[in-house]
Amino acid sequence: MASRQKIGETTLRQLNTPHGVLTYQFTLKRVKNMNLRVLPDGTLRVSAGPRVPIREVERFLTSRSQWITEAVERAESRKRQAAAKDCLRLWGREIPLSVGIVDRDLPETLILTEEGAEMALWEDTPLRRQTQVLAFWKRETGDLFAARFRFWAGHFQEKYPVEAKKVGLAVKPMTSRWGSYSKRTGTIALSLYLASRPPEFLEYTIVHEFCHMLYLDHSPLFHALVEENLPGAGVIREKMKRFPIR
Questions:
Q1: 148 with 141: CB under 8 angstroms?
Q2: N or C: which end of the chain has fewer CB within 10 A?
Q3: Residue 85's pLDDT is what?
């Protein structure tokens, strides 16, 4: 291992891999095996003995880079979800949320203020919080959902031989998928939970579903069509895979 590093000493390192840059804490220990751990906060820790060359450590990390990247992102996602209890997520932002209890003769509400978001509940339970968040998203983001949908409907109507402007829009709190297209009903459904994610998630989902008017599968031709209409769609798709819907 690096002769300048002492037994028990920890250094911060970075490694370029096919799945992105890995930042990890490396500790030199009196051990025979190489060890790797992803902590609950997403920190990547690696340890090895003094006889293990650094190139061997980096070769191992590179070979497992996809698994490591996914494990780190899952840990970071769980961390964000734990913190989200006191945050209102809106278009990828986390807005500080304060919750107060009000008498039952007053309405339960969720509003934005200069300081953040304020929620008034009769009783602080997960269900009551979620009800107010969903109502807030529907109220505050409905116009944008509709506007982006109309924009892409016009785009596909002009560019391809499809009746995109006749497609109906349904926005509902779907938790199993970001969106869906029904050829039978001529409707595109979008998950209301898109309001909590970065705006490009909404753009990608709308384009994805309109492309299903030409290809009902997820073939290479389908993904090429999505990319043609939304450059960088593949990058957005991979990012969306790493985020839970709710």
A1: no
A2: C
A3: 62
**Interatomic CA distance for residues 12 and 43, integer angstroms:** 11
CB 229 within 8 A of CB 160: no
- What domains can be seen in the chain, in order of their start residue? 10-81 (no CATH), 83-132 (no CATH), 141-241 (3.30.2010.10)
DSSP 89-151: EETTEEEEEEEEE--TTS--EEEE-SSSEEEEESS--HHHHHHHHHHHHHHHHHHHHHHHHHH
Query: Among 27-36, 58-67, 112-121, 185-194, which is the least confidently predicted range?
Result: 27-36
What number is the average pLDDT over the span 126-137? 96
Does residue 105 carry a pLDDT above 80?
yes
Which residue type occupies 70?
Answer: E
Give residue 116's region: left, alpha or beta (phi > 0; psi -120 to 50): left
CA dist., res. 81 & res. 98, Å (int): 16
Mean pLDDT of the chain: 93
Please give the structure tokens belonging to residue 218.
């997820």
pLDDT of residue 90: 97
Question: Does pTM surpass 0.90?
Answer: no
Amino acid identity of residue 183, one-letter, is: K
